[in-house]
Amino acid sequence: MIIKYFYPMKRENIDQLVKVEYHQADKCPLKGSQLSFFQIVYVISGKGSFTINDNLATYGKGSLILLTPNDQHFLEIKEKTELLLVKFSERYIKDYKWNSINSIGCLLYGASYLSGCILQNKPDVVLVDSIVNSLLHGINHPDLYQEELTLHYVNALIVIAARNISKMRTENIASNTDKRILEIINYIQGNIHDPALLKVSVISQKFGLSETYLGSYFKNQSGETITHYILNYKMRLIEHRLLFSDMRINEIVTEFGFSDESHLNKFFKKQHKMSLTEFKKAKGSIKSKV
After folding, report:
1. What does the alpha-carbon distance between residue 260 and residue 22 come to, in Å, rounded to a whole number?
2. Which keywords does this chain's UniProt record carry (predicted)?
């Protein structure tokens, strides 16, 4: 479950559902590669820059970075750096029974549109520091039931990451905005796979608002209509499935509640002016040249 070693390292596919590693690096640059799993990177010490999918951001002590499957990453070290890496597979996210988060995978996949430290919620800084110290203690002093404890710590990190991503995804919303808009967005993201629960009439009833007021309220708070937000969020998830997973089109149809492949294709083509297979082929050929 837990291993401890130092850079340099070669690319590896995760061979278990969850793995925790301690790394130390003092040379730069360190090249990464496309991952086949999720990876939370916590900076214990050091300074430098992190490039994810051509987006450059600096890192320092306390930075929390999330890499999603197939992200391209590159680490440039300025000061000797210590990292705690928490790796977990897509299967782990899909199969684990999250109590109150219906679509945690959707939130985590959203990190591919972000760059840099995702730890923006100040109260979570202390929580993450405590969890990291506990994981490091388990690495250095393994004890009875260590694997079970490690899984609990990792789950806590995943939920914290999802919570911070959820807040960051509302990029057009001010930090001091009405809390209710964040609750509405969390509801949409958590129920993105169920079209029946995404109807404006259902959402307005859920939050005790009239449909007319919900529409104007959402646009005033976020800068876009609620319908556009739902469609855009769903589209980004579908794009990610096409490019970074081995899911078949009929599986995507089922996941997002479309009636059939023709329905999904019509939805997709309206946005991209090309079919699902054309999009996958075009984007796939571009990525293969990177």
Report:
1. 46
2. DNA-binding, Transcription, Transcription regulation
